[in-house]
Design brief:
Length: about 375
């Protein structure tokens, strides 16, 4: 079976070339051809010796992902569905803006975290993507966009690991993919322009700080453990105190002097001004006397299975005002690509679920409804009494 060279970071490709009796500089040449030039055919690598091209033809391949579909939004957003085999497909989204061009990449077919407000989580989990399947999304998007725009210059300026899956639960594939994104012989992206989003896998946050520190975004979504346990089940394993301490530790290695907290605005759930004040207290207690984080408020993108609604704009504005008034940099994410289901939290792809996620989430919703009704009944009884 031939080896797919998209699976390798530069160190891995050097080791592969050495196994063929070739030197390091040959690996660098091949790496540049693949990632800078978008080559998928060894015959096109004209500065390689014919003997090396023959070895590569016999032992290796450059196998991109199959594109199952492409959708373009009226705002310029592009969403691709990639077939990763065995009934699974993952999505990647390109978001062009005036000052940047961002690609949102998936790390897993599905997701095992099961956040209440995330469409992917409701689909369950099938498997981790390989390093080659992660980087193949960038490889395809970059070179496809160059061809369509008629340029040889780099198109994608930022990459965010915010697509399907929890990146830090696929750590062994994530890090080689990140190193390829950062390598000057490949895509040459700055550490500040590559972001890993996590729901809070604390031990892996510490490892990432040591192994490949890039910008970090943490899915927070609640100011206390009771609510976050409900919205982000991983919180039961790594509660807020542990998560905030890990964020503070990460700052020592981070390419930026802040951590971004993602906060999905859910009507009547986590959007009250009182909860915004709780968030202020939470981050001030974690690192007193320093402005060390920013909040990105995300208007929820509804989908039927969630049972949740988007906070109205006045509630989002009032929430943002509390944070801003406390000196915390706060932005409200502009919804992009929602007409093609490419907005934040909407990526779903196709997943052969091994975790019975839909059944488990439906059960959790039913329990929550019963508890809410019970609380209402108790209050009415108290009023009558």
């Amino acid at each position: 079976m031939k080896t797919n060279l998209l699976e390798f970071d530069l160190a891995g490709l050097v080791a592969f070339c050495e196994s063929l009796g070739e030197k390091r500089f040959r690996a660098i040449q091949i790496y540049r051809w693949i990632h800078q030039q978008g080559a998928s055919d060894f015959a096109a690598m004209t500065d390689l010796a014919k003997s090396l091209r023959f070895k590569l033809e016999q032992n290796a391949c450059i196998e991109p992902l199959k594109v199952a579909s492409e959708h373009r939004s009226k705002d310029g957003t592009v969403k691709w569905l990639f077939d990763v085999g065995d009934g699974n497909a993952v999505e990647a989204v390109f978001i062009p803006e005036d000052d940047r061009a961002t690609l949102c990449i998936s790390s897993q077919a599905g997701c095992a975290v099961g956040c209440r407000f995330c469409s992917t989580g409701h689909q369950g989990f099938s498997r981790n993507l390989t390093a080659g399947e992660i980087i193949a999304q960038l490889w395809f998007a970059e070179h496809s966009l160059r061809r369509s725009s008629g340029t040889t210059e780099r198109v994608i300026s930022n990459v965010v690991m915010m697509g399907m899956g929890e990146p830090l639960q696929n750590y062994s594939a994530l890090v080689p993919a990140l190193r390829t994104m950062l390598d000057d012989h490949a895509y040459g992206l700055s550490r500040r322009r590559v972001t890993v989003s996590t729901s809070g896998v604390v031990p892996m946050m510490d490892r990432l700080a040591r192994d490949c520190p890039v910008a970090l975004a943490v899915s927070l979504h609640a100011p206390d453990d009771v609510l976050r346990d409900h919205l982000v089940p991983l919180n039961r394993k790594y509660p807020l105190r542990e998560l905030l301490d890990a964020c503070v530790r990460y700052l020592a290695s981070a390419p930026r002097d802040f951590i971004t907290f993602e906060y999905c605005m859910l009507d009547g759930v986590n959007d009250r001004a009182e909860q915004a004040h709780q968030l202020v207290d939470l981050v001030r207690a974690a690192l007193p006397g320093k402005s060390w984080c920013k909040f990105n408020l995300i208007p929820f993108n509804p989908f039927p299975a969630s049972g949740l609604s988007r906070s109205p704009p006045p509630a989002i504005d009032a929430f943002a005002e509390v944070l801003s008034h406390a000196g915390i940099v706060t932005t409200v994410r502009k919804t992009r690509g929602d007409d093609i289901d490419a907005a934040c939290g909407q990526l779903a792809g196709e997943v052969r679920d091994r975790t019975r996620a839909a059944e488990r989430m439906a059960s959790r919703r039913t329990i929550s409804i019963h508890r809410a009704k019970a609380r209402t009944f108790d209050c009415k009884e108290a009023d009558i009494g």
